[in-house]
Amino acid sequence: MTDVLIVGAGPAGLSAGIACAQHGLQVKIVDEFPRPGGRLLGQLHEEPDGTWWNGMEEAKRLLEQAEKLGVDIDCGVSVYDAAKTKEGWSVSSSHGNFEVPKLLLATGAAEMALPLPGWTLPGVMSIGGAQVMTNVHRVRVGERGIVVGVNILSVAIARELQLSGIHVDRMVLPAQNPVTRDAGNPEKVFQSMLRVAHLAPSTFMKLGSKLLKSKTMQKLALQFLPGIGGIRMWGIPIQLKAAALEIIGDKQVEGVKIVKINAKGAPIPGTEKVIPADFVCIAGGLYPLVELAAVAGCPFAYLPELGGHVPLHNERMQTPVEGLYVAGNITGIEGAKVAAAQGTVAGLSIADEFGKLPEKNLLSTAIETVEVVRQNATIQFHPCIAQGRATVKNMSAQHKSDA
Amino acid sequence: MESDPIIVCRCEEVTLQELHETAKSYQCSSRELKLRTRAGMGYCGGRTCRNLIDMIVNEVTGKSPGHSIPLGYQPPVRPVTFGLLGGHK
């Protein structure tokens, strides 16, 4: 008899499973991907203190701990519905139905697209797709690639492709259109990149982050940024003043037509040229994958600082729907360490609901840990995350008092 | 500088131009835009384009998405066979 079903075997789901199992609950975790670990499987980067974050190792550690505690993990299982019953939840999956008292959704995030002419050609993939092919499946995505979209995630993954011996020719912005917007605006992109400048090995970016606190200085710096040639991180040209107009190719990607742009993102006519490439990565950022929370009847909050629509939930990771919990990127886009800390909270919270958490302070400590981990995160996906988190908490409390 | 059209909904092959023009003439919601063009109604269940549809509506009408999700989700949220849904004996 399963006490709790967890959808998603990433850092949040595994950590939650561990916390539940440690308190005597029968846990089942399902994941759509053939291997447990979620986004951890693709992660490999150097921390500012010089140590390496190896997601694959982290996933292995969590998995071993979960298995030792008797957590039942099933991969390659797609959940397609979750309906409330008198006793709990009826969850439908590609591998049968599960009837469980408690349901935790740790489904993570999905990638946003940046549509351009030619983006449906074979050889165009999302940056996350390239990461999974490279780091998980060990498949070479191509010989020479161009990344369209400059953000925290794409810069980190471009570095991973490079570490795997794949040539990333350059990173450019998408040409501005109604569905690329800020991603095609050099000023906006530059500002967001300054927040992760401390991670960069290049002196330009490091110096930049110190000097460029003021808006005026940022504008000035951007004017002098070379368009073609650009700044470099790990030798990869990051061209904030070049935009991809179109992906060229007959049956597959053959190149990308780029154009110089001004500081506002407007193309400079006559500067177009075609850069040869056999693969293109589109990087539009992440949004919380909330489909199951929606069909389960959970109310939402729309908070762009958390990546879009997120299920309402309190600090204990409970949604307003009885027996439904959330943890990880489904609650807002943040790093794997925050997701894992949230998973632990959700697990303890569920154990408490079953009356199996005699040490109440464990839960309050875990809630505090989420805050600490968030504050110490090396990568802040959005400058207003704390604000967004506070809004969700207030909305959740308001929803409770209204009900 | 005429280039190929920009496809927004890959499953149903709906272009940015068509979505933009439809949103403009009807000043409509994401849901109405979906129903008029079929954008978001394909195989992937709108996982790739739902945010883009909301963006286009926001751009054209000035209305940003509210707290409730503009384009609803219906089960099954993954492609499944009829057999799985109970069609087999």
How many β strands of chain B by DSSP? 2
Strand tally of chain A, please? 22
The helix content of chain B, as a percent range, equals 40-55%
Q: Output the radius of gyration of chain B.
A: 15 Å
Mean pLDDT of chain A: 91
H/E element sequence of chain B:
EEHHHH
Low-confidence stretches of chain A: none
Structural class of chain A: alpha/beta
Low-confidence stretches of chain B: none
Number of helices of chain A: 11
- Total domains of chain A, how many? 2
CATH fold-level assignment of the largest domain in chain A: FAD/NAD(P)-binding domain
Termini separation of chain B comes to 58 Å
As a whole number of angstroms, the C-alpha radius of gyration of chain A is 22 Å
Entry keywords:
heterodimer, A: 403 residues, alpha/beta, FAD/NAD(P)-binding domain, 2 domains, eight-stranded mixed sheet, five-stranded parallel sheet, 22 strands, globular, B: 89 residues, mainly alpha, two-stranded antiparallel sheet, 40% helix, 6% strand, oxidoreductase activity (chain A), FAD-dependent oxidoreductase (chain A), oxidoreductase (chain A), FAD/NAD-binding_dom (chain A), flavoprotein (chain A)
